[in-house]
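Try this one yourself first.
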């Protein structure tokens, strides 16, 4: 398919006449076309198409249909039918009433081009640019951000089901790409054991029985891996993605001890950011936030929150589930900077705030980060009956602190805390503390000396200022605006009939926010746009070993798929003994 950009024609007269008769007051898509025009232009998508070939459907129309599709929660077929049969949609797309539209597959092909070409952000950027031109969106106002969990389009399974399903997945894939080899190296009972999908209800219920079951599955997987890594085994079998997933899952869940393969305890497995929770989506990880636990991802939505202007989403950030909110604050600010939409005040909850971010947001982006800080967890502050760190006078130039009783500190030591933050440990003399009349209000240490830990000067001052501001009525009034973004998240969830957003993972070949959809409201007191991201699940699914005859998915398993590289190396002993009877360390 090639792109032949053409001038966007006005809405045909007959389409206008019929649409006005059917909708005397207009509707959302007619108002959108009247107020915003076509929004997109073919030239914006020129890089996604080759120069030669059959002319493609106009990209500006496909982009607009994508917006309508996700705004209404339509499937590709339903969206294509809407283009063929709905007068208001033909009006928005400048189509004749007799236009036959296009095949539904064109929409998925267009989304694929957006992702491969890293152009999915254009759908949002073009809309934001238009809003800025109309004066509805301005930099240096007030914006708010919140996040919600995103369920991966996989089953959430426990460790036992995961290892069983991973082995079943590998066997099914080998049955497709190397059936003769698998028949020679498999065991007859594997068909009954792994022929159907593993369900937790089918697993043993007792702790000892589950342990035995896990070890039996581990031995089966180890047998298969040993055969795959034999010198006479075809080397390309080890490059099958399902085989590599099997190896990694076994490394994470099993270990050799005294010549015996054993099940790892929960304290001896990789952290959630590295642990593979499903063989069908390596990017989906487990996370827990307060009382909510899930396997998947997390999405951060940022929107304007001016009282006299429509609330418009300005940034969408998708991450893996274990990534903390404060790890994305600076990234969100950088994304807003690229769009020239940095706010004066950024209203967030506690998860996005810490002392360093309070300072760096002001220093690097001139943003006032507004949000409640984490409370001082020391008993002196919690009980409000002692001397917390904020009651000590600090002379940053002299590198000394003075306690409420007037004693000077005896040491000043820069350090790194357990959260990898730069801190300063300030200690007072045991001689001064032991004879102090306020010792019981200061420390409960058996050493009878006080130590306080503070952030570097600028971070400390930013934190203290934020804590003092949080006590004021003005802060409470301003922070109340943050609650509105939860309504945006709720609307995006309910619009698609799920309690959790059905958003999809960032990929190595796509930007963090995959595809954006929009629902436009023309009324001045309503939102002009609501954006969400979506993408078809690409996990390959397979039939049972006995009946598998083809791969269901976009690509066969024999195709080359780039393996994922973990951000942090997790070193453990290799499952399979190395040649010569020794074990060797491996890195996954």
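Now uncover the answer:
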């Amino acid at each position: 398919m090639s792109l032949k950009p053409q001038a966007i024609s006005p809405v045909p007269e007959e389409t206008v006449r019929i649409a006005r008769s059917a909708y005397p007051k207009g509707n959302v898509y007619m108002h959108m076309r009247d107020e915003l025009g076509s929004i997109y232009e073919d030239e914006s998508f020129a890089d996604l198409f080759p120069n030669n070939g059959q002319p493609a459907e106009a990209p500006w129309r496909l982009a607009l249909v994508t917006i309508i599709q996700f705004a209404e929660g339509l499937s590709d077929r339903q969206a294509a039918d809407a283009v063929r049969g709905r007068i208001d949609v033909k009006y928005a797309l400048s189509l004749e009433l007799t236009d036959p539209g296009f095949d539904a597959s064109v929409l998925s092909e267009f989304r694929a081009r957006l992702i491969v070409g890293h152009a999915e952000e254009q759908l949002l950027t073009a809309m934001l640019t238009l809003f800025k031109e109309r004066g509805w969106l301005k930099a240096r106002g007030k914006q708010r951000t919140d996040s919600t969990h995103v369920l991966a389009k996989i089953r959430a399974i426990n460790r036992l089901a995961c290892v069983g399903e991973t082995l079943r997945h590998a066997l099914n894939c080998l049955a497709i790409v190397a059936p003769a080899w698998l028949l020679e190296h498999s065991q007859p009972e594997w068909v009954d054991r792994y022929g159907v999908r593993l369900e937790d209800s089918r697993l043993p219920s007792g702790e000892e029985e589950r342990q035995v079951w896990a070890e039996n599955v581990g031995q089966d997987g180890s047998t298969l891996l040993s055969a795959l890594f034999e010198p006479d085994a075809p080397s390309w079998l080890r490059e099958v993605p399902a085989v590599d997933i099997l190896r990694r899952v076994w490394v994470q869940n099993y270990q050799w001890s005294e010549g015996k393969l054993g099940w790892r305890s929960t304290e001896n497995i990789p952290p959630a950011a590295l642990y593979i929770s499903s063989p069908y989506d390596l990017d989906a990880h487990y996370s827990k936030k307060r009382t909510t636990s899930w396997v998947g991802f997390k999405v951060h939505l940022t929107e304007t929150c001016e009282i006299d202007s429509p609330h418009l989403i300005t940034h969408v950030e998708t991450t893996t589930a274990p990534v903390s909110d404060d790890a994305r604050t600076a990234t969100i600010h950088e994304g807003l900077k690229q769009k020239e939409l940095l706010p004066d005040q950024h209203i967030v909850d506690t998860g996005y705030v810490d002392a360093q971010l309070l300072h760096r947001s002001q220093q690097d982006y001139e943003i006032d980060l507004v949000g409640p800080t984490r409370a001082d967890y020391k008993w002196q502050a919690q009980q409000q009956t002692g001397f917390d760190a904020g009651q000590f006078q600090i002379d940053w130039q002299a590198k000394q602190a003075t306690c409420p009783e007037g004693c000077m500190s005896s040491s000043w030591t820069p350090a790194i805390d357990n959260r990898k933050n730069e801190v300063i440990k300030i200690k007072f003399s045991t001689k001064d503390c032991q004879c102090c009349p306020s010792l019981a209000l200061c420390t409960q240490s058996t050493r009878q000396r006080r130590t306080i830990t503070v952030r570097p000067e600028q971070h400390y001052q930013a934190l203290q200022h934020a804590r003092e501001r949080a006590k004021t009525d003005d802060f409470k009034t301003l922070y109340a605006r943050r609650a509105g973004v939860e309504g945006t998240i709720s609307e995006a969830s309910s619009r698609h009939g799920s309690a959790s957003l059905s958003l999809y993972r960032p990929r190595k070949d796509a930007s963090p926010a995959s595809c954006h959809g929009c629902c436009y409201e023309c009324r001045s007191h309503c939102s002009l746009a609501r954006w969400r991201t979506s993408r078809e699940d690409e996990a390959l699914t397979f039939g049972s070993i006995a009946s598998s005859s083809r791969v269901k998915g976009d690509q066969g398993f024999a195709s080359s798929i780039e393996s994922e590289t973990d951000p942090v190396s997790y070193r453990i002993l290799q499952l399979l003994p190395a040649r010569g009877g020794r074990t060797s360390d491996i890195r996954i």
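Discussion: The chain has 20 helices and 17 strands. The chain has four domains: 13-119, 159-279+558-587, 285-369+475-533, 379-469.
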